[in-house]
Amino acid sequence: MNAIDEVTESFSRLPGIGKKSAGRIASFLLKADPAFMRRFAKQIETLQERIRPCRICGAWTEEDPCPICQDMTRDRTTICVVEQPQDVAIIESCHDYKGLFHVLGGVIAPLEGISPDSLRIKELLERVEKEGIQEVILATNPTVEGDTTALYIQSLLKGSPCKLTRLASGLPVGGDLEYIDRLTLARSFMGRAGF
Predict the structure, then answer these.
(1) What pLDDT is stored for residue 177 in this prediction?
(2) Contact 170, 191 (CB under 8 A)
(3) pTM listed for this prediction
(4) Would you state the pLDDT for residue 195?
(5) Beta strands 52-53 and 99-103: pairing type?
(6) Are 23 and 31 in contact (CB under 8 A)?
(7) Which residues pair with 135 in a beta bridge?
(8) Residue among 38, 37, 20, 21 nearest 29 (CA)
């Protein structure tokens, strides 16, 4: 295996990058400016040293606590619960949510050995109790594991005075009914709203 094959193999292990895309990236890097290559290599080399989970919410950050947890203008009575740190960035990119976050670090998946104790659920319950949270938004993915995790958290917070909500799911804008799966269609009917 030559150097190009090795780099292609490494890039193809990244999520969302197949062999062809990995080969194109390797070809791009061969033609790239050496200064860019040094900077890029240094960024990759130091990424894990510079970025860590926020001690409060679990989102990726360079400063601890993260800028979101430090921002006193945010709605500090609402927590949006997500599965992974990258989910925070996705929600933040919409600029519609102004509350706090809590990253679970995964979902309950017994077949993969992930139990509730493996997740940051205990920390969530502590935050709800200590920080006077009035609403917990469960923003886990609409999968069997995501739904199981949301139901588990719901059962733990049942006696709590805070309101529990779940992100709506349904038809995407511009979607065609012909291509929508049954579960999505069923959830669209359950979550329908007036206009």
Answers:
(1) 66
(2) yes
(3) 0.84
(4) 65
(5) unpaired
(6) no
(7) 78, 163
(8) 37
Q: What local confidence, expressed as pLDDT, does residue 23 receive?
A: 95
Residue 30 near residue 20, CB atoms below 8 Å:
no
Structure-block tokens of residue 92: 């933040």
- Closest by CA to 188, choosing from 174, 172, 176, 171, is 171
The residue assigned the tokens 């594991």 is 145
171 φ, ψ (degrees, to nearest 5): -75, 135
Q: Is 107 left (phi over 0), alpha (psi -120 to 50) or beta?
A: beta
Counting every residue written for the chain, the total comes to 195
Give the ranges where 1-157 is alpha helix by DSSP (H). 3-12, 19-31, 34-50, 67-70, 85-93, 121-130, 144-156
Give me 4's structure tokens: 């190009």
First to last CA, the chain: 60
